[in-house]
Write a structure and sequence with these properties.
The chain is an alpha+beta fold. The chain is 31% helix and 22% strand. The strands form eight sheets. Strands 1, 4, 7, 8, 9, 10, 11, 12, 13, 14, 15 and 16 form a twelve-stranded antiparallel sheet that branches. It has a four-stranded antiparallel sheet with strand order 2-3-5-6. β9 and β10 form a beta hairpin. α3 runs antiparallel to α4, α6 packs antiparallel against α7 and α7 runs antiparallel to α8.
Length: 607
């Protein structure tokens, strides 16, 4: 549960790894790092989110590498964020003393985080203050593959042996090498600054100023947040988490800043999520705009249109700068988180056929235009072509929302998003008097909505079906039909479908599976955990059906599952409550925001 003043807790390392709940996120809009409850940084890719990781202990605790700052004989620890910022404090208690480590990927002085421009300095600050007693503090900078260090007047020059740029490590205390021990007592400081990408090494060393400027930049950005609904502190934290998954220069959003975190532990469902999915941008736009972050919403929409224009064909995902996602490869040198192999880089789903992308792009275009954006004639011609393509594709097999790796089927959700494509194209063309088959698109959208309600309905099971040809198999993607305005939430068949999903996909205590693998084979071995976002979709459906008390109860239950830092993973183990899958997951934090906004509106808010 999110806690701004959490208690100390003992360290756990099952199989040699910290639980995901014991990790905090820091970021600067270009890359991100995870900071452990034990003072380690086991994950950081440089210089960008999707670069190879310099510190990769998250995926192999013995060979992956880490940046450690921790007292010897560590007993317990706690973490908290500086309020309304991306600056993280970790307090570590040993047998002899208590230290606080303040971590941040620091930002430029005066940085405007609402601007579509880089704000990071390319520097990590780790600032240690001894709060009580005395400690022997271990400091170790160990990139994956080792490193060579050269002593300079201004610190150490570090060349990672395997991947990453040349690094420069500076400190207010002497550093004899990459592994040092510092004897400190109450009131003593140790400041460490790790830099990359700078053309000169001799510049002012002032970690306090860098941290202060970073806090100020975050707080200026958070002044735009005007949310005043349920779980306000967690919603504000979710907005910051999304911002730390955002590529500020490009406007794109990484699905997660990590790769290959398994769901479940020991399984093979380990994917690289450091890329931008079109559908994630569409959901994020809705969530962030509703709490005051219009600039980020517009940037996401602009990125979607830019990426589509550059690729000349609709793709489900792109790199953060809008290029093609690398081919999927397996890294045999890393054992994987808690021994869960394989570790993967790139993503093999990038070239899948997923017909929902037509609706995602046209929905983004519609939102872009409603915000005062402009679309040139050549772009509109391409978008109109997507509507025409959706009108032909809806009944054809694809891999669906969940990117199954088995033979495709005609999915109801995919047909629903083709309906969205037709509907939005008709609305755009009519509103802005653009050329196109307005009447034909509108008629086709209406027919497709009716067809979904009739053809995918299974009378015996009393539910819409995951497959367009019926059969009564359900999956949680059906909960999206009202959210995308394909089917009203209160339609009798949607109400029945909500009931079927809640019953048949229940993982207990409000959690939902995406689907059941014995009913809905996806081409991969093994099961998985409960998918967090699906339960937030259930909240939204309950709101749409006027069942507010149930929605509020479920929302509160889901929010209570966040870590003490207010972070959520992709999935949750329904038996233990442990986090699973890539972390933190943008989708899950979008759910926190969107459902909170919907509850606020339903209770009489004005959004």
């Amino acid at each position: 549960m999110h806690d701004s003043d959490p208690p100390f807790r003992p360290l756990r390392r099952p199989d040699g790894y910290l639980p995901l709940e014991d990790l905090g996120l820091i970021g600067d809009g270009t890359t991100a790092a995870l900071v452990g409850l034990d003072g380690t940084i086991p994950w950081m890719c440089l210089p960008r989110f999707d670069s190879e990781p310099v510190f990769c202990g998250l995926l192999d605790h013995t060979r992956g590498g880490h940046f450690t700052v921790t007292p010897q004989n560590l007993r317990e620890a706690r973490q908290r964020y500086e309020p309304d910022t991306g600056v993280l404090h970790t307090e570590l208690r040993s047998d002899t003393g208590l230290v606080r480590v303040t971590d941040a990927l620091v930002l430029r002085s005066g940085a405007d985080l609402s601007d579509d421009a880089p704000s990071g300095r390319g520097e990590l600050v780790r600032s240690v203050l001894v709060l009580d007693g005395e400690v022997r503090l271990d400091v170790a900078v160990e990139p994956r593959g080792g490193a060579q260090a050269h002593q300079l007047y201004s610190g150490l020059e570090v060349q990672p042996g395997l991947a990453g740029p040349r690094l420069h490590l500076r400190s207010n205390r002497p550093l004899s090498g990459l592994r040092t021990v510092h004897e400190l007592r109450q009131g003593d400081r140790l400041d460490l600054v790790l830099s990359w990408g700078r053309f000169h090494r001799h510049h002012r060393f002032d970690p306090d100023a860098m941290l202060r400027q970073t806090e100020d930049a975050w707080r200026r950005w958070m002044r735009s947040c005007d949310y005043a609904g349920p779980q306000e502190a967690l919603v504000r934290r979710a907005a910051i988490t999304l911002k730390m998954c955002d590529d500020w220069a490009n406007g794109s959003l990484a699905a997660a800043p990590t790769s290959s975190l398994p769901a479940p532990i020991g399984g093979i469902r380990n994917w690289d999520y450091r890329y931008a999915w079109i559908r994630d941008a569409a959901f994020a736009v809705f969530a962030l705009r509703r709490i005051g972050f219009h600039g980020e919403a517009d940037a996401f929409l602009g990125w979607v249109l830019d990426a589509f224009e550059r690729s000349r064909r609709p793709r489900i995902m792109y790199t953060l700068d809008g290029d093609l996602v690398p081919d999927e490869t397996e890294d045999a040198e890393l054992e994987g988180y808690r021994g869960s192999s394989p570790v993967r880089w790139g993503n093999g789903a990038a070239d899948q056929r997923q017909h929902d992308v037509y609706g995602e792009i046209l929905d983004c275009a519609d939102q872009w235009l409603r915000r005062g954006g402009e679309i040139q004639p050549a772009m509109w011609a391409s978008l109109a072509g997507l509507a025409d393509a959706a009108g032909h594709a809806w009944h054809r097999p694809d891999q669906g929302l969940w990117e199954i790796r088995s033979e495709g089927r005609p999915f109801t959700y995919s047909a629903g998003l083709c309906q969205v494509a037709l509907d939005r194209a008709a609305q755009i063309a009519e509103r802005f008097r653009l050329p196109g088959d307005i009447g034909g698109w509108r008629d086709a959208a209406d027919r497709l909505r009716d067809l979904i309600l009739e053809q995918s309905w299974d009378e015996d099971a009393q539910t819409l079906s995951v497959y367009l040809d019926g059969g009564g198999v359900v999956d949680a993607s059906l909960l999206n039909l009202p959210l995308r305005h394909v089917v009203p939430a209160g339609h009798p068949r949607m109400v029945a479908t909500t009931r079927a999903v809640a019953t048949r996909l229940s993982a207990g205590d409000g959690l939902l599976y995406r689907y059941l693998h014995d009913e809905h084979p996806d081409g991969l071995a093994g099961d998985e955990g409960a998918f967090v976002l699906c339960s937030f979709w259930m909240v939204d459906n309950l709101i749409g059906q006027g069942r507010l008390e149930e929605a509020e109860e479920l929302y509160a239950s889901l929010c209570s599952r966040a870590s003490p830092l207010g972070l959520l993973s992709e999935q949750i183990d329904p038996t233990t409550g442990a986090f699973m899958g890539n972390f933190p997951q943008a989708f899950s934090h979008i759910g926190i925001i969107a459902s909170g906004v919907n509850l606020e509106r339903a209770r009489g808010g004005s959004r």
